[in-house]
Structures are given as C-alpha cells and as structure tokens.
Specification:
By secondary structure, the chain is an alpha+beta fold. It is built from eight helices and 15 strands.
C-alpha cells in the first residue's frame, strides 16, 4: 500500500487535520514517502497516524526524516531527573521511576502549562518546525489535544488588523506562560535558560506562501508596546484564533502518533484524572532559522 491522507472533517475543515494510512511509519521510510508526508503536512498541518507502535529509537529515526531534531532543553526535568533521552520530550505525569507525580510536584505544576494554547519551542531562538507525539499510555477519559489553524485564523482577520500586525515582533518565554498559571518556582539557571526571545507575529510558510499568526501563551510582550496593551492585544488575538471553527480536537487512542506543524498551528492539552498515567513521548524537528531571519 502507498500513503493515503484524507481530511478528518472534509466538510468544515477540508484542509486542516488529516488521517494518514497505508504506510508503516515505524519502519525506515523511502525518500518519496517522507516527501509525501511533508506535502501532506503542508496541506493539513496536522496528521494522525493510527496504530504506530513506536519505541523511542524508531520515533527518533522517523522524525529525523524531516530535519534536525531539537534537544529537550525546554523540559524542567534535567540531568538525573530525566526519564527519557535528550532527543525525546517527556510529555507525561511520571517521574524517572515511572511513578505518577504528586499533585504538588513542581514538574507536574510546570507541565500544566501545556494546557495553555502554545506553539512548541516558540521560547527558543529557533523554534520548532514539526512535533510528533506518540501515545504510549493514555488515561481512561480526558487528556485530548486540541489544535488551532493559525492560517485560517489569519485569513479571517479584517484588513486593518492584518496591517497593524504585519511587522510586529513578540517576545516569548516560558516565564510568561507559567506566570499565567501562578507558577514562578524557577531556579536562577532556569530563568537564564528561559530568557525571552523575539519572534515574528506573522509568518509566511516557506512551501505554500500562506500567512499565519504565530501566537503562544509564551508571548508576553510586543516590542515597542506597553506591556499591558501588548498582553491585552495578544489575548484578543488568541481568543479570535481559537474559535471552535478553527479547532480540531484529537481524542487519543493508544499508539496514535500525531504530527503537527508548529509554524502554522497552536495546540493545548486538556485535563484528565491526574492519578491515572498519561505517557506521551514527543520528538521535535527544529526550524531552519530564527523567525526574524525568515521571509516576512
């Protein structure tokens, strides 16, 4: 069989969120198959691969077809606290001994930031291109992931707003996003590591040429604007961009692999029973350059 991609919601979202079948992505990919997946990403921005029974080594190999992988330096658990390799982000509620984190554990509290709308690694000078999230263990209910189409959100803006935001530069940091939830338990090393970085607010996709919003809960300032005005404006844009008409909600099944383009989407995790295990492993492909160096 060859790769087949169809829209999950062909009526309401014919070009956002597709389901991909016909290829075993856990095995080494032929070049033309990887190219077809990349073309599907250009169209749909989110692809769901059911029953992809990855281990970390094969997931790393799959993701490497699409560019260099990020190191998991945005995780708060580093060094001896880490459960997974530095090429895999630990999107779980487990400690290194595979025990569920206590309710007040700072790693769990930091991880609650994933419930805010965000784009992976927008807090890094070179943000993420693709993310691939593998569902190893899922809770009995809840824990869905929602994705918002930032291309459609941009297209729906009025012309005056498009003109206003065309050249704006935001500052992104996990210090901003976690502060939204009241989390400020950072070490001095973490404060240095998560220092704000500049990102364009409007981006042009290098393959399709489409413009999109580059929003995230990590964005806490707009260069040249007073902070209260900037945050109110960014909140309004996020409210616009996450209307239900722009959102696909993924209900996880074990062994799903969901891959998305961080350049044109935002996403967030939804709540679940914190006493149950939710073990997700994410590999992340880095973008090619800082957004200020990319075509506007």
């Amino acid at each position: 069989m060859s790769l087949s991609i169809r829209a999950i919601d062909p009526v309401s979202r014919p070009d956002f969120a597709g389901i991909a079948t016909g290829v075993d992505i856990t095995a080494p990919l032929a070049g033309e198959t990887a190219a077809a997946i990349a073309a599907g990403m250009d169209r749909f921005a989110v692809l769901v691969f059911p029953d992809a029974r990855f281990d970390d080594e094969r997931q790393i190999a799959f993701s490497a077809n699409f560019g260099p992988l990020e190191q998991a330096t945005g995780d708060i658990a580093q060094g001896a606290e880490r459960r997974l390799s530095m090429q895999v982000n630990d999107i779980s509620n487990l400690d290194r001994n595979n025990q569920v984190l206590a309710r007040e554990d700072r790693r769990r509290l930091f991880g609650l930031g994933n419930r805010l709308w965000h784009s992976d690694s927008s807090f890094k000078p070179i943000p993420a291109k693709y993310s691939a999230l593998s569902a190893r263990t899922i809770p009995g209910a809840g824990g869905n992931t929602e994705f918002a189409d930032m291309r459609a959100a941009y297209d729906a803006l009025d012309d005056a707003t498009k003109a206003e935001i065309a050249d704006l530069v935001c500052e992104h940091s996990q210090l901003f996003s976690r502060a939204t939830l009241g989390f400020d338990d950072f070490t001095e090393d973490e404060r240095r590591r998560f220092a704000p970085v500049p990102q364009r607010l409007v981006r042009r996709h290098p393959a399709t040429g489409r413009l999109s919003l580059f929003l995230a809960s990590h964005a806490g300032a707009i260069r040249g604007w007073p902070v209260p005005e900037a945050r109110a404006f960014l909140r309004d844009l996020t409210e616009h961009a996450t209307q239900r008409r722009f959102v696909y909600a993924h209900v996880w099944r074990r062994w799903d692999l969901v891959m998305w383009d961080n350049r044109v989407t935002m996403h967030r995790a939804r709540p679940f029973d914190a006493t149950e295990v939710r073990d997700m492993h994410r590999t992340t492909v880095a973008d090619s350059a800082p957004t200020l160096e990319q075509a506007a």
